[in-house]
Amino acid sequence: RRDFVANVSHELRTPLTAIRMAAESLHMGAMRDDRMRAKFLNNIQGEADRLTRLVNELLTVANLMGRPILHMSNFDLQTLAEQVEGTLEHHAKLANVQLIVNCPDDVPVVEADRDRLQQVLINLVDNAIKFTPASGAVTLDISSQAGGKEILCKVIDSGIGIPPIDLPRIFERFYRVDKARSRVTGGVGLGLSIVKDIIEAHHGRIVVTSEVNKGTTFNINLPVKQPTPE
Ligand code: ATP
Ligand code: MG
């Protein structure tokens, strides 16, 4: 827990420092130079976005650290998959990554926390796009499993992959394979820990397989109906 607080403070300090430095530069005269002004304002905006994302993720972590409160409903995954696609297709296009989403009609209605499940899929597909070089592909594939008792969500990418030594640790909070690269992509290493907490709260399982320079696949098994509490 102490490590967690230390990590959080560190992660908050980095964008704050960048914002302060950009503001100082503007004061010192960059304000009068059109190009410099645009550059520093962009920095401030980017770092503020990063802070917002980080704080939102922390709120989710804090929320999940106690007993996670899930708001269950029954909903269809076809619509959810379309929403995830709608949220990220622009992002994929900018990265020149092909985004493919499959969710056939025979996938049953599930009982789950819809917002949280959406967050899971967005986190995974967002990662997949982020860690896939241009002209690669990312696939979200949802199917029925175990005779309709479970669903299987696969997020498959043709990206940079994860070295075997890092693979067991990627679900830890703040763990990033390559900190320098993640700094560029703007991640703090919370997404996958949130994903795992949410899936486990739904009595599901998440498994990852990966090969460096070939790609990564996340498999999620989720029960269609939640077990009735004792
Ligand atoms: P955040 O999600 O908090 O914005 P992040 O994306 O860096 O930051 P996670 O989503 O928790 O953090 O992922 C942890 C690390 O696992 C990443 O930094 C990256 O090194 C690695 N990783 C995750 N998904 C993939 C993927 N699809 N391909 C390659 N590496 C991945
Ligand atoms: Mg992430």
Structural description of this entry:
This protein is of the alpha+beta class and 230 residues long. Helix content is 48%, strand content 20%. The protein contains 6 helices and 7 strands, in the order ααβαββαββααββ. The two termini are 31 Å apart. The model has no long low-confidence stretch (mean pLDDT 91). The structure holds adenosine-5'-triphosphate and magnesium ion (MG).
How much strand content do the residues show? 15-25%
Number of helices, where a helix is a run of at least 4 consecutive DSSP H or I residues? 6
Number of DSSP E strands: 7
**Global structural class:** alpha+beta
Distance between the termini: 31 Å
| Strand arrangement, major sheet | 2-4-5-7-6
Low-confidence stretches: none
* Mean pLDDT over the residues: 91
Largest sheet: 5 strands, mixed
Helix content: 40-55%
List bound small molecules.
adenosine-5'-triphosphate, magnesium ion
Task: Compute the CA-based radius of gyration.
Answer: 20 Å
Using the alpha-carbon principal axes, give the shape. Answer: globular
Topology as H/E string?
A: HHEHEEHEEHHEE
